[in-house]
Fold this sequence. Notes:
Helix content is 0%, strand content 20%. With 97 residues, it is mainly β. The protein is elongated.
Amino acid sequence: MPLDTSTYSLALLRLDGRRWNELRRMHAQISTQPTTDGSSYLEMGNTKVICTVAGPAEGRRAGGGGGAGGDATATVQVEISIAGFSGVDRKRRGRGD
Length: 97
């Protein structure tokens, strides 16, 4: 779809051609990894996120007992993995770059 600039000044567009109030293209899918219990994929601009869920799994009981009078508590474990080439810390560039 060509960009209609007849009613909008090119000086007010972002570098990628979007107007100030336009969002980047977004794409989302669910059940993308068949070997997991749940998974999703989200893409917005150059940001891509894959999320997988494994579980529920039977927990270990302390004390070896297991009967009807046990605790009604649960533990949720979360593991976040960030690819080595991406991260939240920005590298400072030298003045010559």
